[in-house]
Design a protein that fits this description.
alpha+beta; 7-stranded mixed sheet; 4-stranded mixed sheet; 5 helices; 11 strands; 23% strand; globular
Length: 235
Amino acid sequence: MAYTVTVSEKGYCSDILMSVAETGDICPQTTLMIVAAHDRYQRSASRIYYTDGMVVDVNVSTNHLLKRLEEKTAFKRGQQVEAYYRLLPPDLTGQMRSWIMQNYALIPVTSYKSGPTTWINARYISNVQTRGMQTSIVLVDGSVLNINKHKDKFMKQLVATKVVSLWMTQYAFGHGDHFDKILLPFINWPARVAHQINRSRLQCLLVITMLEGLMIKATETNVKKLNYVIRLMEQ
């Protein structure tokens, strides 16, 4: 069954979810898209579309679902993905980070830093079109996701996602050139980007991002301790 979903400038779909489940599972192999929504009490909720046509509404945010997926599938995937993105040319490095594994990726189509996030499975995107002021993402089952983002900007996200996914495959299995057409086959490989990953540079970036993560964690811990001391002094 094909669906047409429109996400507003504020990042939410137009439908108000009247009945929501307590939980729902997402999986890179079976999830078509995860759409940010509101329930009837204006609380953040999610609508999950699956490849078999099933739709499930849950009373947790889309970012919470992605965080749970992260915990189930990989340790510190965020740091790994960040290292790969830093290998890209400058115009691709600045794109929003997708949730990526070998030959699969969930792409954020709205901002996960400033508000609700709608995610779409790159494995099932067949085309991207411009319709008036909107960009329409067409899926293999005929479903369409309309978003308020310029097509060129979204296409850069797709290019970055395709490159990082292939590089992950190479790094994990020692090969991967023939997987070029598995993920986002309608996206041409950018001429300025090497097919073969620079392994030595990636390993350096993996260490750097790990150290940055440790520094951020230490800073957050120190801030919490300082705030606790301030509260004690104010009593």
